[in-house]
Amino acid sequence: MDIRDPATAKIGEEIFPFEMETVPEYFLKKAEVELHDTPDRRAQGLREIKELVKNDEHTKNIEFDDEFLLQYLRVRKYDVARAFTQLKAFVAAKKKYPLMFTNFRYDKIVKATNDKVMSMLPWRCQDGCAIMLVELDNWKPEDFTVEEVKRAYLLFLSESLRNPMTQINGFKVIFDLKSNPLRHLKHFTPENVYLLYHGTQECIAARYKEVHLVNLSVTFRAIWFIMKHFLTDKLKQRVIFHNTTETLLNHFPKAVLPKQYGGDLQNYNMAEWVKKAMAPEKLAALGGRPREMND
Known about the structure:
Order of helices and strands: HHEHHHEEHHEHHEHHEHHE
Shape: globular
Helix content: 40-55%
GO molecular function, one term: phosphatidylinositol bisphosphate binding
Distance between the termini: 44 Å
Pfam families: CRAL_TRIO, CRAL_TRIO_N
Organism: Caerostris darwini
Number of helices: 13
Structural class: alpha/beta
Protein name: CRAL-TRIO domain-containing protein
InterPro entries: CRAL-TRIO_dom, CRAL-TRIO_dom_sf, CRAL/TRIO_N_dom, CRAL/TRIO_N_dom_sf
Strand order of the largest sheet: 2-3-4-5-6
Number of strands: 7
């Protein structure tokens, strides 16, 4: 596939909105080349993974939507055995951490995006990636607890992955690590850092193409000391450290970045997207439904 230059990418040409109903032809071709994704492979992969689901003691009583199963098939490039292993890891995490999958509160989660703690940006990168922005300094744990952060992160990733464009192209994440260590550091325990890694890498079917770190802080250095031991070499190579925010423009079109990072984006709000993500039928289907509900 051709390389798309962020410096010349324009909205309406190379830059597409985060919310999309169809996949442009360019990205269908990209999926075929990079993920071996074709109509025949999708049909065959769904048949095979559903057979594995039906015959495994940990999953046989769970009904999964096709769009959910396709996330795992695409992220593992239609290696059905690896896709099913990752799906089972998700099922195990849901059983081990039930509080992450229950008690979602719209007022809390919408506050996370309104306060710019974490946001899905309204435009995609020029290569089709969805962009998540996390601004650590805006997080006030007394208002938005660690458990609520976990729920919000799970919801944002899971809802984003309903979209085939995100399944195909993956995510880029910008972590703004400016932080008050007295406020945040105590929450970054080895258990929480491991859960962040395990959940995002080994359970949720997301492709992380780049992770950008800006405004490095004392808090981050402590987190990195713990987290780097969990990361694969492949993922470490995708972590990009920035000495200044200006260098983000080497990777992202100016049109998609907020003003404080040298971009043109301002006054964006994803509250309506959060509301749709928290529709009762979507929350009920998060990670599968008990099979007897559909019989």
